[in-house]
């Protein structure tokens, strides 16, 4: 059961309206690594978790917080749009308000569709999609994906921070950056703890028998590029992070195997609905010719 408290985790009030910046801020609301994504990602991971205890509770807690971040950004965007010119923008060399809005960097749909409110879209107007969500049921894989999501999100927020001089906006972004810092560290710590407790390990999934792999290829760095500098990295020699082998560097790919012959699909009609006899004969003749090649 969810309850809503009519207050924000942090202040979300800009110093002045700015429809152009509201358009940019949509990215960290409805983009691939925006707050809607992480809220839904952590939510589905928690709802799909089969093991009660600290890991599921961690997912529940951060997922609920991220829903609050969605609300803060939506509130900020709505206030940036309040009393802002949602047509002709300063310096736009167009008489048509819609064209001027596009050239000026505002989002016409903020006014036309959302009535000067935030939308579940990215900064290009692409709708948020559930395809952004990762919830595999494997906690080590998911926690690693969560750390990446927080890193990508924090990267975008930090760029947006430098795209405005508005102190109110910067104050909210500074808070969100701090929470992203915390969440990055939490997911990395949780992933490490899963391994320490033997719940999951590398390579994921650890339940798949390594004996069923082609083990001779499991730790080979096969260089498919004409650059050689990658051989200097720790990923090319020495023990592997999973502790189950040693890296081997191959400067060139081994010899391949012949490709199979071209397929010859049976294109003759096999449906339950009859075909015109001339068409069926022509298709049959073509198929016979194909198999004689």
TrEMBL record:
Which family is this sequence assigned to? Belongs to the manganese catalase family.
* Family annotation (Pfam families): Mn_catalase
Can you tell which superkingdom this protein's organism belongs to? Bacteria
State the residue spans of region: Disordered. 230-293
Name of protein: Manganese catalase family protein
Where does this protein have compositionally biased stretches of type Pro residues? Answer: 255-264
């Amino acid at each position: 059961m969810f309850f809503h408290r009519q207050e924000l985790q942090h202040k979300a009030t800009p110093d002045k309206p700015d429809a152009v910046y509201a358009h940019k801020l949509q990215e960290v609301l409805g983009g691939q690594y925006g707050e809607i994504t992480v809220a839904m990602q952590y939510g589905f991971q928690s709802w799909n978790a089969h093991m009660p205890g600290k890991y599921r509770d961690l997912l529940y807690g951060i997922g609920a917080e991220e829903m609050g971040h969605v609300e803060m950004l939506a509130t900020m965007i709505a206030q940036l749009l309040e009393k802002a010119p949602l047509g002709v923008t300063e310096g736009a060399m167009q008489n048509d308000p819609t064209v001027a809005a596009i050239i000026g960097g505002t989002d016409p749909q903020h006014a036309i569709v959302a009535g000067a409110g935030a939308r579940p879209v990215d900064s290009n107007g692409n709708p948020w999609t559930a395809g952004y969500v990762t919830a595999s049921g494997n906690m080590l894989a998911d926690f690693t994906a969560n750390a990446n999501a927080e890193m990508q999100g924090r990267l975008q927020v930090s760029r947006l921070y430098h795209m405005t001089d508005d102190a109110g906006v910067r104050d909210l972004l500074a808070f969100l950056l701090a929470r992203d810092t915390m969440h990055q560290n939490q997911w990395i710590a949780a992933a490490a703890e899963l391994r320490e407790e033997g719940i999951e390990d590398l390579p994921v999934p650890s339940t798949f028998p390594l004996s069923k792999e082609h083990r001779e290829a499991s730790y080979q760095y096969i260089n498919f590029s004409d650059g050689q500098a990658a051989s200097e990295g720790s990923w090319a020699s020495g023990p592997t992070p999973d502790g189950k082998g040693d890296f081997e560097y191959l400067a060139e790919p081994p010899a391949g195997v012949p490709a199979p012959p071209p397929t010859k699909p049976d294109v003759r009609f096999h449906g339950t609905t009859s075909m015109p006899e001339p068409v069926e004969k022509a298709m049959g003749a073509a198929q016979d010719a194909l198999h004689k090649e």
